[in-house]
Amino acid sequence: MNMRRxxxxxxxxxxxxxxxxxxxxxxxxxxxxxxxRLLEEELGTNLFLRLPRGITLSRAGISxxxxxxxxxxxxxxxxxxxxxxxxxxxxxxxxGFHDAAHHYPVVKSxxxxxxxxxxxxxxxFISSSSQDQFEALTTxxxxxxxxxxxxxxxxxxxxxxxxxxxxxLALSSEHPLAVKSKISVDDIRGEPFLWADTVSFRxxxxxxxxxxxxxxxxxxxxxxxxxxxxxxxxxxxxxxxLAIIPNAIRSENIVVRPIEGLSHPVELMLxxxxxxxxxxxxxxxxxxRLAM
Amino acid sequence: MNMRRxxxxxxxxxxxxxxxxxxxxxxxxxxxxxxxRLLEEELGTNLFLRLPRGITLSRAGISxxxxxxxxxxxxxxxxxxxxxxxxxxxxxxxxGFHDAAHHYPVVKSxxxxxxxxxxxxxxxFISSSSQDQFEALTTxxxxxxxxxxxxxxxxxxxxxxxxxxxxxLALSSEHPLAVKSKISVDDIRGEPFLWADTVSFRxxxxxxxxxxxxxxxxxxxxxxxxxxxxxxxxxxxxxxxLAIIPNAIRSENIVVRPIEGLSHPVELMLxxxxxxxxxxxxxxxxxxRLAM
DNA sequence: CGTTTTGATGCTGACTTGGCATCATTTGCG
DNA sequence: CGCAAATGATGCCAAGTCAGCATCAAAACG
Lengths: 292, 292
Fold this sequence. Notes:
Chain A is α/β, with parallel strands linked by helices. Helices cover 43% and strands 24% of the residues of chain A. Chain A has helices at 3-15, 18-25, 29-43, 59-86, 105-117, 130-138, 185-188, 202-214, 229-237, 279-291, and strands at residues 48-50, 55-57, 91-97, 121-127, 144-149, 157-165, 167-172, 192-196, 220-226, 243-246, 254-257, 266-273. In chain A, strands 4-3-5-12-6 form a five-stranded mixed sheet, sandwiched between helices. Chains A and B meet through helix 4 of A and helix 4 of B.
């Protein structure tokens, strides 16, 4: 079966005349006559009724005309869609997200700018830890990852640093210490602390604890097991205790203050697979660079 | 664009391997390799990523695969539908109906039998007078007509007589005359009569009037302008008067009795266009003959 | 380091398609 | 009525398309 035959058939069906159709198709009439006959033989049924003068669509032809038009439409659509996908105008991006990423303005502006230029690209968002994202990138389960922490990407992955940050003390804005612009370790010795779940935040929470003990501060961990930044902040706001979180994390009724001597640098990075030559991905990376 | 290429593409995409796909398609591997390249050139985009070892679908390829499958499915469907239409298994029949036709059992049994054998044939029913049906048949606006009356079909139309009938007197079963099995003209002289609308029933009502006067009966037309048999019968049942209708017309609480000497033969006919060689139409006619 | 796997390329013959000339039939016009 | 126009069909040939075969190139495997 040849698409050309379908095009020819549609032309003849529309003109109900071989000569006019052949002119429209820029081929000679006998060629057209034959192609229609071949199409009919291929289908095993007549598409036209041969009247003493001229032709008309048969019942089978009427049915086939509808389908032929749809096939041609679909065929053209298939081509343009493939090209749109190729050029990155159309498609789906699977993006891994560390929850903290949403607190950095560069993320919002990147998506805003990308969406303005590529409205037909769909996103699939996958919230997961940085380690899981490295994993997912190498197994090609996601196309891009917004990774947060201090881990360096594994080999074969490329990355772009989006933001630098360090940790500080989160406390309710009604807390007496909120008035101070810089907190010393002595200020918070004995204060009750909220602590992240050691499974969800893995080495992250360990590293923070190590940084604290390094400056001679042993936090009084009052409540623990919080599995998200949102949960942590909600508890801080309720006055359940203080928490150590990245400085950029903002929430109503909460202030974050640096702690003298305490440092645990963290980075927000966009990470992707090195040998992916996909236009959607590289377009996204380009927009991220522009949005910084 | 060639459907074959789409089939080849789907095979390669499914196998992700030229050799296996070529075996499945019963062609040599180089031929397949080239057809895929030609398809890619035709589309203007790569469908596969050439990896150092083997191939994978590109993003464009994934998109195109979906569309290619649909095109192939549709193409096969188009063919089988055309053949089904050709053989009369599928399609639409436009059938003209004189309202009286529904009172003859042969109509019901014809449709029942036809529907059992051809469940995929759709009907479009068009209620219209016999004259309008002859017209519609010649202009190919309907495929079949259930025509009622005494008019002979115009030339170029073929017909099959389904039922013979004659006219009689319709009266409420509570009417004193209902006990008589045969009515004489003297019985009904002076009785109030319901009469059909002379426009809707045209020459039909004239002819009946002529038949009445021919036997010296001048009906006392009390109410007139009824445009359907249903309306007429409803009025008869209400005791508004008597009516002259075909004997076969039956309704609850109404009896129809022959009138001595009065005759106006009417026929129910199936009429169709002589040079239509459509299978659906001829199948329907065959079933009608069987149902008689 | 040779063998296997996997895709690409060059060449040739067979099939497909289009153009040209021509035919057959019907219709319309003087 | 007879001739021209309209309309589709057929025969033949050249150009294009496609498949098979042999072969190459690169990478992986043992």
